[in-house]
Design a protein that fits this description.
The complex is a heterodimer of chains A (118) and B (111).
Chain A: E1 4-7, E2 10-13, E3 19-25, E4 29-38, E5 45-51, E6 57-58, E7 67-73, E8 76-81, E9 90-99, E10 108-109, E11 113-117
Parallel strand pairs in A: 2-11
Antiparallel strand pairs in A: 1-3, 3-8, 4-5, 4-9, 5-6, 7-8, 9-10, 9-11
Chain B: E1 10-14, E2 19-24, E3 32-38, E4 45-51, E5 56-58, E6 62-67, E7 72-77, E8 86-93, E9 100-101, E10 105-110
Parallel strand pairs in B: 1-10
Antiparallel strand pairs in B: 2-7, 3-4, 3-8, 5-6, 6-7, 8-9, 8-10
Classes of the chains: A mainly beta (118), B mainly beta (111).
Chain lengths: 118, 111
């Protein structure tokens, strides 16, 4: 149980294009989903928190117009990197907290999406 | 956890030995702590968690110790195996909601 998937697992795009990353909770309903960014040999940095049906809350320094987050259902959240540039190249990871689980406080992570912007 | 930095501490351990990974957390209001394991190119994998009303919790081959007085968290891995090689992160939360991750420790198991 507590499986979170991400798609795609990796993507290469040209500078200026937009990229959408999906995060799905496969076997539980995720009341809250989180998006993180991780640069090589660094820790995870929280970008934003999203609750189903409401607007995402962004961490300080994260541009909400650049990183669009949609949490349309209890099993799906999407992150769209708009007008991507090389400095946006990173490992993007989502996590989800569940409802109806004994470990509802625990965040379960997806496998990550490697974004490379040329 | 400790503020994010560019340097990941490392730990080299002989296969079969016990490993101890340490973490100093910063927020005295944190009441929930988790250890995650991250293998190269993958997302973090939950290992074990502990709440602030406990000072020790055991899982399968792992033990987490919490010292709130000095804001210190440790993860002990018994009989370390090659598959334990990974980066280990501690994470803290003051409100059972958002997690703050430490810098991480790279564990390498020597055969």
């Amino acid at each position: 149980g507590a499986v979170v998937s991400q798609h795609p697992s990796w993507v290469i795009c040209k500078s200026g294009t937009s990229v959408k990353i999906e995060c799905r909770s496969l076997d539980f309903q995720a009341t809250t989903m989180f998006w993180y960014r991780q640069f090589p040999k660094q820790s995870l940095m929280l970008m934003a928190t999203s609750n189903e049906g409401s607007k995402a809350t962004y961490e300080q320094g994260v541009e909400k117009d650049k990183f669009l987050i949609n949490h349309a259902s209890l099993t799906l959240s999407t992150l769209t990197v708009t007008s991507a540039h090389p400095e946006d190249s990173s490992f993007y990871i989502c996590s989800a907290r569940g409802r109806g689980r004994g470990d509802a406080d625990t965040q379960y992570f997806g496998p990550g999406t490697r974004l490379t912007v040329l | 956890g400790e503020s994010v930095g560019l340097h990941l501490p490392t730990l080299s351990v002989q296969e079969g030995d016990n490993s101890i990974i340490n973490c100093a957390y910063s927020n005295s209001a944190s009441d929930y702590f988790i250890w995650y394991k991250q293998e190269s190119g993958k997302g973090p994998q939950f290992i074990i968690d502990i709440r602030s009303n406990m000072d020790k919790r055991q899982g399968q081959r792992v033990t987490v110790l919490l010292n709130k007085t000095v804001k210190h968290l440790s993860l002990q891995i018994a009989a370390t195996q090659p598959g334990d090689s990974a980066v280990y992160f501690c994470a803290e939360s003051p409100n059972d909601y958002k997690l703050s991750f430490g810098a991480g420790t790279t564990v390498t198991v020597r055969a």
